[in-house]
Design brief:
Layout: H1 5-15, E1 19-25, E2 31-36, H2 49-64, H3 67-70, E3 76-79, E4 83-91, E5 94-101, H4 106-122, H5 127-130
Antiparallel strand pairs: 1-2, 1-5, 3-4, 4-5
Length: about 130
Amino acid sequence: MTYPLDKLCIQAFKFNRRVRYAGVLDETGRLIAGGMRKGIPSMEPASENLRLMANLTIQIGTDKTWDQYFGKMQYTYVNREKLNVLTFYLGGKNVMLISAESDFDLDNMALLRDTVMTIYSTGIVPEKVKK
């Protein structure tokens, strides 16, 4: 059983109000579920969206070349001045991309990833997220 992707993104938003973006991308970098939290403006111009997703797709594809030596990628975490970004595989070829405010640290991101993966794989929504 896998949890519906659009609802999975909603659960990521429910996890914490500092989550700005929760989206699921296919192997081509196309957004197939989720997106920006309602009422939160994107930091980049809309004209850059395609380029950013293409860049992410290239990065993920490049990371896969190392799988034979180091094993599969668990997640990537990028800490920037204005926001933090987490990417990880959901299963198959889909990747989840989550961005949060800069004060949402690695420990919170790891807990969010574990929560999302639990919901995705079991369909069980932890009490903390249900609200």
